[in-house]
Amino acid sequence: MNPSPHVSDILRVATYNIHKGVQGIGPARRLEIHNLGLAVEQLDADIVCLQEVRKLHRREAAYFQRWPDVPQAEYLAPEGYEAIYRTNAFTKHGEHGNALLSRWPVIGHQHEDISDHRFEQRGLLHVEVDAHGRRVHVIVVHLGLIPGSRVRQVERLQQFVEREVPPGSPVVVAGDFNDWGLQIKRMLAGFGLYEFDAPRAFTYPARLPLVQLDHVYVRGLSPIGLHVPRGRIWWRMSDHLPLIAEFRL
């Protein structure tokens, strides 16, 4: 899929788990947030949904000389984009969560905790944007590692959509679903959310992708294409590859 021109009826959405801007472990770990900033710009998406985004991390900021002075969501936002971030998890040295970068004006945003147990802190980020005069509701998710948790989190997602999104309004749900089966896909279809109906676009693990953990589902929009950037430059930056989906408004 070639990048489409930015015409008024095309919505280009990217989702990307950025692995907190750092790759590797121990002394061999390397800071990738600067490369990720260039990568996000290259995605050329109207909306970029990000997971595992650090607001701050005191230990890593002390370890890396070039750690950005601003939170990662702000650092990654291309010029002219608005960055919305909300924390999912509080850790010993900092906090991280989901973010959304929007080329379009943001009307409002909110966060909901969808943690299923005390060992995993999870949340959804809801952002309403003005896309060429049309209001689009975008929800960024990062679901849990346990299958039963994911099912309950999708049920929470359904309740949230029914409560917070007006009937008939376009909805985008994007993120890392941590699931490569069909159960979550069927559950989402049960309340009107579908993705591009094509062969799976494998996104994980980035170096040799075998499964698709990252998805963009929509309601009230027409899916027209799906693309996963590949190559060494991409698999060095995160353990996930980004996923780019295009829709007709």
UniProtKB/TrEMBL annotation:
Gene3D superfamilies: Endonuclease/exonuclease/phosphatase (3.60.10.10). One of its GO terms (biological process) is GPI anchor biosynthetic process. Signal peptide: none annotated. GO terms for molecular function: endonuclease activity; exonuclease activity. The keyword Cell membrane does not apply. Pfam families: Exo_endo_phos (PF03372). One of its GO terms (cellular component) is membrane. Keywords: Endonuclease, Exonuclease, Hydrolase, Nuclease. Residues 14-240 form the Endonuclease/exonuclease/phosphatase domain. InterPro entries: Endo/exonu/phosph_ase_sf (IPR036691), Endo/exonuclease/phosphatase (IPR005135), GPI-anchor_lipid_remodeler (IPR051916). This is Metal-dependent hydrolase, endonuclease/exonuclease/phosphatase family. It comes from Acidovorax soli. The lineage of its organism: Bacteria, Pseudomonadati, Pseudomonadota, Betaproteobacteria, Burkholderiales.
